[in-house]
Structures are given as C-alpha cells and as structure tokens.
Design goal:
Helix content of chain A: 10-25%
Number of helices of chain A: 3
Radius of gyration of chain A: 15 Å
Number of strands of chain A: 6
Oligomer: homotetramer
Largest interface: A-B, 39 and 39 residues
Structural class of chain A: alpha+beta
Chain lengths: 141, 141, 141, 141
C-alpha cells in the first residue's frame, strides 16, 4: 500500500464518530503499524476519577484497527488481551502504538502499548489478534 | 454488603463522565455481579460503520468494574481478554454481564459476556482479572 | 457427530504421545464439550515443587482440543488465555472441562476450568479460541 | 541479583521434574529475562501428529518462570495469553524467550515468543502476568 492509502485511513479514522467523541487523533499509519493519541481529560473518568479502562482500551483498539487494515485488506478484531500497568496522570497526553508481530492470509497479531509519550511512563500493554477477510479496501477520495 | 451500598455504586456509575458520554446504564448490581446496557447507536461507530470495539469493551469493563467493587473493597483491573463474536445489529440494545468466578484476598476473576438481550445473540465474551486493594469503599450519601 | 466418532477421538487422545507422557485421561467427549483428568504427581513439579503451569495448561489444552474437534471438522488453537487461581494439593486429582460458548464457520470459543473434582476447589480458568479449517475428520477404525 | 543467583536458578530448572520430562534446557537467564530450548520431538505430539499446544506453552512458561523470579523475589503466574502462529517443523529446535515489560512491587508482565532459532520462523507469542510475593529467593548451594 502507498502513502495515499494511509492518508485515506487516517481521514476515515478522524471522521469516525466514536473516535471523535472520545478525542482520538492519529499520529502515524504505516504498513502493519499505527500510533494514536488522546488526552486523559476528566471527560473520560470512571467512578474513581481516573481514566476509564474502556477509554484506554479504545485508544489501543484504534491503533490496532488501523495497523491491521493498513495492508489494504479488511481485517476485524478476534481477541484482545490488555494488561493495565499504571493509571495515567491527570490530563496526561496518552499514546498507543500497534505493531505487527506476524501476518498470515487468515490472521495477524499485534503488540500494542500505551504510554505517556512525554515521560515514557507505561500505562498498558496489549496483544491483539485480527481475522483477515478477503475484502479489499481502497483509498477513498 | 447491602442494597444501600449497591445503590450507591449504581449512582456513582450513572454520574461517571465516560459512562454518560457513551450511554451506559446499570441494570443490576449484586455481590460479585453486575449487568449494564448501552444502545449501539451510530455515535459509537468505527471506520466501517459498525460499533467500535472500544465501545463494546467499555460496556464489559463497566460491568466488570461494578462487579469487582461490589464487595466494598476497592479493586482495579489487571487484565481483560475479550473475544469478539459477532457485530451488533444497527441500533441494537446491548447488555454486558460480569459474574465472579473466584475471589481471594489479592485477586478476583470475572466471566463476562455481551449479548443483544432481546434476541439472545452473543456479541462478545471476556475474562477479566482484578487486583484487590486493601482500601474500603463506603456508600456515599 | 455420533458416539462412534467421540469414541474415536478418545482413542486418539489416549494414544497421543504427549498426553500419555504427562498422564492425561479422557473422562467424556460430547458435542462442543470435553472433560480430562490428570494426577498432580511430583513428576509434574516446577522449581518450587508445585505442579508446573505448563502441566495445568496442557490438561486444559487437551479438553479444548477434543471439544473443538468434536464437530468432525478439524480445528486448531489460535489463542488461549489462562488465569491461575490456586495451586493444586499434593497428588491431587485434577479435572479440566471445556465448553463451547459460540461457533461460527471460521472460529469457535470455549470456556475452560480446572478443578480438584473431589473437593470442587478451583485451580484455573481459561478462555480458548479455535480456528476451524474446512477439513473433515472421520472416525478411525 | 548476581551471576551466582542466575546459575542457581538454571540448576533448579534443570533439576525440575516436568522440565526434564519434556526436554527443556535453559540457554540464558538475566535480570527480567530468560531463554529456554526444547526439541519438537515426536514424544511431544498431539492427536494430529504435530507438537502439542501444551508442550509449546510449557516452553514459554519456563522462560516466564525464570524471568519473573530473576529478581530474587518469588513470583507466581497470574495470567498467560498465548497466540499460536504456525506449527513447528518435525524435530525442529524451538526457543522461547521472556522479556520484562514492566515490574511493580506487586505485579510484573513479560513479552514472550517462541521461534525456530535456526530459521527465525515464529511459532507463538504470549503475554504473561506474574504476581510478586514478598518472599526472598536465595541462591542454593
């Protein structure tokens, strides 16, 4: 796939209703790779006043989604195992990355991590498994 | 714990910023158990126009969060492994349940599932592991 | 599938080199379901003198393997997430069960647990995901 | 910890009954790190004649066990999520590595992978979570 296709994926991500609602922003998409950012604002808080586990997961999931679709073939999530390491600081900038570990015709797996990129503090790690359909994705105008 | 404490947990969940934003509603909280609902509205869509994996996870995570805190001792997520089974129908009502499998002084594990309760269709299953702190939770007025 | 096919699966399991080496014994195979037993003998010990995590996993994996192949279509493991709950007693009898949660043409998922069946003590729980090939299995004479 | 302690861990691993039975051999132990080898011999076969998923997991688990105990504080497995990528070749040499991703006073997580070291072929990947007790380990004479 080429840069034009990656730009199309980024556009689709930025127009996605759920991503807009929680404040996701794509930093980079490459072959089998993606990085996404989000601010740990109080809008994302859980009952204890820290960032909701679902918000942190969603950041990971978006990176995973773009990485596994970066080959131009539609892929869907089969399983994600997330381990929470530490709670983000108040209003911290968070970044998730997803990096391809292997890819066959039918499945692919990604190593994901969430950090506070300014301090390098690790927030969560995840292992994500995608099912690869036969459907082609094309760059949208 | 008693009914008053469960009602306090439900109130806190309904006041939680992230839960309000994505539309979570508690159905029931009991000892080691919780059920939560959410509508699969288009506001929760991903780049393919179906419900974002992060939104489905968040529904599970809220049920897990209430179930593991239902004993009156603060518990935090260590690991969640989610398996996606089928995409929800458009605008479908979704329900997540979390049910305690075991509990020691330091950890506890929950079997979770997401269904469309009207049809019984299975959307996702998850296994969730909590770390139990020593901190007591009290019913808030 | 019928009883003859289940008996054939049980025979193959009992002839399997790895299962014989660690002492696996099939209790029951049904559609989407299996139960296996093993003694927690000192032959299976780790560096701390308790049963090796790999031996407990292998017991689960055999139950999963038979359950996901019980439909007569060859299935292979994609992902297994195991949570260890408590160490088995010395020389305890252990039993693993695997039960189908869902099944599509391409994947299927199983809820697994390991207990000491005599006391009901829970040893481990697992969630297992299989990829279903198109290859038929037939009862071997 | 020092080299003497690592050598003591290696000795304990080589004397471990389960590891001896399935043919595990330690290559290296360092702080938060370990590598183990095993031959994919026919003794480890499952009902399909390929290496049993439990044997591959056991190789990973031994690397995890040594890596998480390398700090001189007893650690036990809480959760391991393994993804199977490809079946090993007949009689292939297999190597598992476990590498620490983070470590707090109560938990630690490890990224694990199994390869055929001669060809670099990836066999499996895993994410492993340990609970760290307060108990000290000492080098045994």
């Amino acid at each position: 796939m080429d840069e034009k296709f990656f730009q199309s994926l980024i556009r689709r991500s930025h127009e996605e209703p759920f991503g807009k609602m929680i404040g996701l922003e794509v930093v980079e998409v490459g072959l089998g790779f993606a990085r996404i950012r989000m601010h740990a604002s109080s809008r994302l808080s859980n009952i204890f006043g820290t960032v909701h586990g679902g918000a942190i997961f969603s950041l990971v999931d978006e990176a995973f989604q773009l990485a596994c679709n970066s080959h131009g073939v539609m892929a869907v999530a089969l399983n994600v195992s997330i381990t929470y390491v530490s709670a983000p600081g108040e209003d911290a900038l968070l970044e998730a990355s997803a990096e391809e570990i292997y890819r066959t015709n039918r499945t692919a797996s990604y190593a994901c991590r969430v950090t506070e990129p300014l301090s390098g503090k690790l927030i969560a790690t995840a292992q994500a498994l995608a099912y690869r359909t036969k459907k082609s994705l094309v760059a949208e105008e």
